[in-house]
Amino acid sequence: MVIVAAISDSEQSRDIAARADELAQAFDDELALIHVIEETEYTRIVEKQSNTRETGAGSVEDNAAAQAADGLDEVISTDYDVIGRVGNPGKKVVEYADEVDARYVVVGGRARSPVGKALFGSVTQSILLNTERPAVTVPALE
């Protein structure tokens, strides 16, 4: 099976990747890091590339995913794949997890109140509400 970790270009991705790596090792599963850019961001990047005549090896989504995963080798000890997608992040993560029959989906969360009540970001909330797979939420250390 596969452990799917939803990453972004945030510092919290290190914690998410580390937890996903622990699960992959514990279950002897594959590890996939997925980064989704929204359509508006995709359009902005494509327009910037065409205006500056930048070309890169690989697709925009794969390049964005590789950039989001940059530096995660320090916290991951197993082999992993980096997946890039374009669209609604919550929807695309759930679709990918279903596509690969993920054992777990690992996402980030944020603690917001003094009493420790967890309030999730909209992407995390969307994933938690729409996946039928077990999900692990990694709280941000704020």
Automatic annotation (TrEMBL):
InterPro entries: Rossmann-like_a/b/a_fold, UspA. CDD domains: USP-like. Pfam families: Usp (PF00582). Residues 3-139 form the UspA domain. PANTHER family: STRESS RESPONSE PROTEIN NHAX, UNIVERSAL STRESS PROTEIN UP12. Belongs to the universal stress protein A family. This is Universal stress protein family protein. It comes from Halalkalicoccus paucihalophilus. The lineage of its organism: Archaea, Methanobacteriati, Methanobacteriota, Stenosarchaea group, Halobacteria.
